[in-house]
Structure formats: structure tokens, C-alpha cells
Design a protein that fits this description.
By secondary structure, the chain is an alpha/beta fold. It has a single domain, classed as 3-Layer(aba) Sandwich (Rossmann fold). It is 42% helix and 19% strand. It has 8 helices and 7 strands. A 7-stranded mixed β-sheet has the order 3-2-1-4-5-7-6, sandwiched between helices. The structure holds S-adenosylmethionine and calcium ion. The site of S-adenosylmethionine (SAM) has 21 residues, from α4 and β2.
């Protein structure tokens, strides 16, 4: 559970999490996402992939707002990317950024087989300079309907500063891992905080959560799905 960093669920029991997966998620998971999930599970960094129920949430959000032009920061093998690509209409687009093309190429054959690779514009490299480039062009301001951010926590606030200008009013930005394995509310002596990775990024996630909570340009909804996702809707 919360102390187990390999378990993506913040729910009260593994049984409850399994129940959700087996009842509502896996039976409806498109075959290509199952294939990608299974392929990713064999990769040493598999803990980075979003869990299947979060893919289902992203898909629902994309469809609810009728997103056409989307962006993703942090692709890894493509679980969130493929869930988004499948949810978009045939001419929908995803600008996808990751510093590591090799990860993306692991999942790419499955994305191609699913017939959605044409929707993806993958850019290898750090996202921040690319975002800076995008905001130079007035045409990109307010041009995105949906943005999913799941990359280096150090830059989440830097991403927010730029992405808020790129997403349209009424559009959504999803920030992933905003509950950081439950550590955001852990007492100072919690064993979880002895884990270097968790301890290191926790203050950054806390800072992000505070900043999002008081940002008047957005409405927010913090969901305990996966490792916590904060959905922001731009209102001004
Ligand atoms: N959303 C992915 C999925 O569903 O499988 C998981 C993304 S993983 C948690 C984070 C990714 O961010 C890694 O693939 C890493 O290479 C990428 N990354 C790290 N720093 C980055 C940066 N500065 N710009 C873009 N991508 C970055
Ligand atoms: Ca994540």
C-alpha cells in the first residue's frame, strides 16, 4: 500500500484496487493497451508507466472535452500516449515530448499497429526549451485542448507557467503523481520518507500542489487515481 512504492494504488487495500481493475478496467481495456502494459511490465523502469485505470481516466477526459489538439510531457513507453491517441478523433494530434527516444521506440510498434501513430508528433529532448519555443508563436497560445504532464518533477512549475498560456480557456492540464506515493501527507517519521527518491521529490510536489491550489486561472480537481492526478481546467 502507501509504504510500497511498487503499488500504484492509494486505496485502502490491494483487494479494492484489484476489484476496480478486474471489474471496470481490464475487461474494457483495448487490446493494444494490454499489449503495451505487458511489454512495459518487463522493462526495468516499469514503475514509471501510468496504471491502466488512469489511462481510462485520460481517455474519458479527452472524449468529454472533445479534445483535438493535445500535448504530453513524459512519454516513457507510451501508456498515457496510446490511451490519449485512441481517444482522439482520426485527425486529432498529440505533441509528445521526452528526453529519451529509446523508451518511446519500445512501445512504438504497438502504437503503429493500433493505427494511431499518425496522430503523434514525437520530439526528443527536454520539454522546457520546446515550450519556450512554442510560446514565442502567438498562434500556439490557447491552441491546446488537453495537456498531460508526467515528467521531471523539478520542472512542473516551469511547465505550468508556459502550458497555462498554451491551453485554451476551458481546456485541461493533468499533472501526474501529485500525491507522490502518499508521501505528501506522511508524518516526518514515516518509513516512506527514508526512500531517497520519495524524499527528494516530495518538497517539489508539495510546492506544486500549493501553487495549483491558489492559482486563480484554473479550477482544480485532485483525484487519488494512480499516484494522484490533479486536473486543472483553465478559466482565465
Ligand atoms: N506518461 C508515461 C507513461 O504513461 O508511461 C510515463 C512517463 S515517465 C513517469 C517520465 C518520463 O519523463 C520519462 O520517460 C523521462 O525520460 C521523461 N523526462 C524526464 N525529464 C524530462 C524532460 N526534461 N523533458 C521531457 N521528458 C522528460
Ligand atoms: Ca506518473
Amino acid at each position: 500500500m502507501i509504504g510500497d512504492v511498487n503499488n500504484k494504488s492509494l486505496l485502502q487495500s490491494n483487494e479494492l484496487y484489484q476489484y476496480i481493475l478486474e471489474t471496470s478496467v481490464y475487461p474494457r481495456e483495448p487490446q493494444c493497451l494490454t499489449e503495451l502494459r505487458q511489454l512495459t511490465s518487463k522493462h526495468p523502469s516499469n514503475v514509471m508507466a501510468i496504471p491502466a485505470e488512469e489511462g481510462q481516466l485520460l481517455s474519458m477526459l479527452v472524449k468529454l472535452i472533445g479534445a483535438q489538439n493535445t500535448m504530453e510531457i513524459g512519454v516513457y513507453t507510451g501508456s498515457s500516449l496510446l490511451a490519449t491517441a485512441l481517444a482522439l478523433s482520426h485527425d486529432g494530434k498529440i505533441l509528445a515530448m521526452d528526453t529519451n527516444r529509446e523508451y518511446y521506440e519500445l512501445g512504438l510498434p504497438i502504437i503503429e499497429k493500433a493505427g494511431v501513430a499518425h496522430k503523434i508528433d514525437f520530439r526528443e529532448g527536454p520539454a522546457l526549451p520546446l515550450l519556450d519555443q512554442l510560446i514565442q508563436d502567438e498562434n500556439n497560445k490557447g491552441a491546446y485542448d488537453f495537456v498531460f504532464i508526467d515528467a521531471d518533477k523539478e520542472n512542473y512549475l516551469n511547465y505550468h507557467k508556459r502550458v497555462i498560456e498554451l491551453v485554451r480557456i476551458g481546456g485541461l492540464i493533468g499533472y501526474d503523481n501529485t500525491l507522490w506515493y502518499g508521501s505528501v501527507a506522511a508524518p516526518p517519521n514515516a518509513p516512506l520518507l527514508d526512500m531517497k527518491h520519495i524524499k527528494h521529490y516530495r518538497p517539489l510536489v508539495l510546492e506544486l500542489n500549493k501553487a495549483l491550489a491558489i492559482d486563480p486561472r484554473i479550477e482544480i480537481c485532485q483525484l487519488p487515481v494512480g499516484d494522484g492526478i490533479t486536473i486543472c481546467r483553465r478559466i482565465s
